[in-house]
Specification:
Layout: H1 2-23, E1 31-36, E2 42-44, E3 55-68, E4 82-89
Antiparallel strand pairs: 1-2, 1-3, 3-4
């Protein structure tokens, strides 16, 4: 009987820990990276790597811009956090 109590207690702890991790909300990116296309629209490139997923050639225009995660530059392009110059291509 004592062995059963120990096993049930251990199972309850394991299930409790698993439930805590399963109910945790994943954290989204605090900011998103967007590429400025030749037609003036923006394409999200968050998580992509320059050089393998996309290129920015040597030009003086904006290639990519970082905006807060809640801001879509296609509707509000004001005040980017940072920019990178060049011409975008993928």
């Amino acid at each position: 009987m004592n062995n059963l109590k120990v096993k049930l207690s251990a199972l309850a702890i394991i299930l409790g820990i698993g439930a805590a991790f399963a109910s945790a909300t994943p954290h989204a990116f605090a900011s998103k990276k967007w590429a400025l296309l030749s037609d003036g629209s923006y394409l999200e490139v968050t998580g992509q790597v320059k050089g393998s997923d996309y290129q920015c050639d040597n030009a003086s225009r904006t290639c990519t811009a970082v905006y807060p995660a809640t801001q879509d530059p296609n509707t509000n392009p004001a005040n980017p956090i940072s920019t990178e110059t060049g011409t975008f291509s993928n």
